[in-house]
Specification:
mainly alpha, 21 helices, about 80% helix, rod-shaped
């Protein structure tokens, strides 16, 4: 029997010594966890000969056979260490981590607010970190976008400020989270330290069991009490969790070696531990059929924790077999997770490809920025839509996330720079347009009260036409300058229309008076007294001349009046020249009354031009007569030329007579002016 035990000790002694060294090294990392190094030869022998637990076997088998991937065990250990701080901390696994990358800033704030209000603060660290990371990325991009807009609208970069309501809300909620977290860990710290001290005391009690001389049953009972107290000792800091557990497990194993003196008690314990570990193995194997992979892995972590913390070792006969089953179940779960993440990586790759397409689309627009405002506005909307699609495209592989984000931002910045360059040049053109419109505005304001209608009206129309040809001005001046220009133009043309309406009324009255005068002329009966009849006709002509302009569409009334006069003069046998001079006499009187030198000068110029035209026409007709030297005077063509020639000569004499009358009138006016000047000199 002793040889069998001795052989058992020899089989496991080497691994155990190595593990003891590792435990002590890990323990020395923590100043609060001190493992007493046993110096007595008896204790050293017991340490070397201890029957190591399945956890120790797992380390050996993992190194030698590689049956369980090291990364999954490390992940489980790390998670269990994190949960060790708080019994409720495991709830973090039940809180879904959303695709925060696809959420807008407003939705990120809403999700953060929901977590802080409804979940335990220690359970949402990963969630909050993920939300903050995505919010900071999105807000930085949003801020740069607003800065670009500010600069493109004429602002200086140094003056840029932006007050974001969303950012303020996020900061408030995140500040609440940090305050709750700090309060939680501040209150938790003392409890964790107290629990740590209590567990270290239990380790000391456990160490003392092997050095006490008492009944083995009493010692075993004390051992069970220590185990129970250990289970109820409460959470400790995660940084000490693994060291404290290894130290505790180390002395558990020493105690089991001590129990070899009473194999009956040890075998009962081994049997109980085996039954419990079989339950754990069966549950771990059943997890292969669990559809919710996250929940399955969470439960696997719990099973490892129970295996590690709550259940002691089993006998050597079943040790490898049961650990192999448990490790195989763990490995199967690990493989399922690996396969799941591979599929997830495929979807991330698809998202990456989609994001590359979006980035290329933005780059295409950025390198072909339109030089037309309307088209460019459409491009801006397209880029905005692509930006939204980029955020909704989903996650990409972590190793290219930063690179993809940098490419996206650079593409958007390139577009913004090219867009801004266009608007900078456009602003320069708009400033020039503004200067031109201001000049037209000043001219319109100077003419709006003008009384020189004949000059001002075409000028105002020209100004309006020029205004339409000038392009856009800066938006902040557009409405103001247009309203000022429109006001000036409306003011002038309202005055013009008012004057025209008044003039139209007067013209209508003149038409009615002329119509009455013409009707009386039609009814005029000749008395056969030439002088009396001529005097009466002159009165009609004088009355007619006193009436001013008539509406444009009624101006043919003058021709009707002259036609009636010509018929009367024909009855009186008055020559055409005499009748023209009679009519012209009234115009001479009108010019004399107006005493307008410019009007008289214009009239003289007009008559002289008519005289020159008549002389030229006469010369042409006389030259034409030479072609008919051999023709008979009875020829219709010759008679027509002769008739036209006589008419031109008669007209020439009439124009000369009119010029004579005009000169006489002007000389008379000049003499009257000289008399007035002389009288003024004598008075002085």
């Amino acid at each position: 029997m002793e040889k069998k035990d001795e052989q058992l000790h020899t089989d496991v002694g080497g691994e155990k010594k190595s593990e003891t060294t590792e435990i002590q090294s890990d323990s020395e990392k923590s100043p609060e966890v001190k493992i007493e190094k046993e110096k007595t030869s008896e204790t050293i022998e017991e340490v070397e000969n201890t029957e190591h637990s399945e956890e120790s076997s797992s380390e050996v088998e993992k190194d030698t056979e590689g049956e369980v991937s090291e990364d999954v065990l490390e992940e489980i250990d790390e998670t269990n260490a994190e949960d060790a701080e708080d019994a409720d901390n495991h709830q973090r696994h039940q809180i879904p981590i959303l695709d925060y990358h696809a959420l807008s800033m407003e939705n990120l704030v809403g999700e953060l607010q929901r977590l802080v209000r409804n979940e335990k603060v220690q359970a949402i660290k990963k969630h909050v970190d993920g939300i903050k990371y995505e919010f900071d990325l999105k807000f930085q991009d949003f801020l740069e976008h607003k800065k670009e807009e500010f600069i493109s609208n004429g602002g200086n970069e140094i003056d840029f400020r932006y007050n974001s309501v969303t950012k303020r809300q996020f900061n408030e909620v995140y500040s609440d989270y940090r305050e709750k977290r700090n309060q939680y860990y501040k209150s938790l710290e003392q409890n964790l330290k107290a629990n740590l001290a209590k567990r270290l005391e239990l380790i000391e009690e456990l160490k003392g069991l092997v050095n006490v001389e008492e009944d083995i049953n009493t010692t075993y009972k004390n051992f069970k009490n220590i185990q129970e107290s250990w289970r109820n000792a409460g959470p400790i800091p995660r940084t000490h969790y693994n060291d404290v557990w290894r130290t505790y497990q180390h002395h558990i194993e020493i105690f089991y070696d001590f129990l070899h003196l009473n194999r009956e008690l040890r075998d009962l314990d081994f049997k109980h531990n085996l039954e419990e570990k079989l339950k754990i193995v069966e549950r771990a194997e059943a997890l292969a059929n669990e559809q919710d992979l996250g929940r399955a892995f969470q439960e696997l972590q719990t099973l490892h924790k129970v295996w590690k913390e709550d259940i002691g070792p089993v006998d050597k006969e079943h040790r490898e077999e049961i650990w192999e089953r448990f490790s195989n179940a763990t490995k199967a779960m690990h493989q399922r997770r690996q396969d799941f993440y591979k599929e997830l990586d495929k979807s991330y790759e698809a998202n990456l490809e989609k994001k590359h397409e979006i980035i290329n689309a933005i780059r295409t627009i950025a390198t072909n920025v339109s030089n037309n405002h309307k088209t460019l506005q459409q491009q801006i909307k397209s880029v905005e839509a692509l930006r939204e699609d980029f955020f909704k495209a989903g996650k990409v592989p972590q190793n290219v996330n930063e690179k993809t984000w940098a490419s996206f931002k650079e593409a958007v910045r390139t577009f913004n720079r090219n867009k801004n360059n266009y608007y900078k040049n456009l602003k320069k053109d708009q400033q020039e347009n503004l200067d031109k419109k201001r000049a037209l505005l000043a001219l319109a304001v100077s003419l709006k009260d003008s009384e020189d209608w004949d000059t001002a009206t075409p000028e105002m129309k020209r100004i309006q036409s020029e205004w339409k040809k000038i392009g856009h001005v800066p938006r902040k001046f557009s409405d103001k300058i247009w309203n000022e220009f429109k006001t000036a133009c409306n003011h002038y043309f309202d005055r013009l229309h008012s004057k025209k309406n008044s003039a139209f009324k007067v013209e209508q009255e003149n038409f009615e008076k002329k119509s009455a005068c013409m009707d009386r002329l039609k009814a005029f009966e000749l008395t056969n007294d030439r002088q009396k009849d001529l005097a009466a006709i002159k009165k009609f002509i004088e009355e007619w001349k006193t009436y001013g302009r008539v509406p444009y569409n009624k101006k043919n009334i003058d021709a009707k009046f002259n036609k009636i006069l010509d018929a009367i003069f024909k009855k009186m046998d008055v020559s055409r020249q005499e009748s023209e001079l009679l009519k012209y006499g009234n115009k001479i009187q009108a010019l004399a009354k107006a005493d307008n030198e410019r009007a008289i000068s214009n009239e003289r110029t007009f008559i002289r031009r008519k005289i020159d035209e008549s002389k030229s026409e006469i010369r042409q007709l006389e030259n034409n007569m030479q072609f008919f030297s051999n023709a008979s005077e009875d020829s219709p063509l010759v008679q027509d030329v002769i008739k036209n020639l006589n008419k031109q000569k008669e007209g020439l004499e009439t124009w000369k007579a009119k010029l004579k009358k005009l000169n006489i009138m002007e000389n008379k006016l000049n003499r009257e002016d000289d008399v007035e000047d002389t009288d003024s000199s004598e008075e002085e």
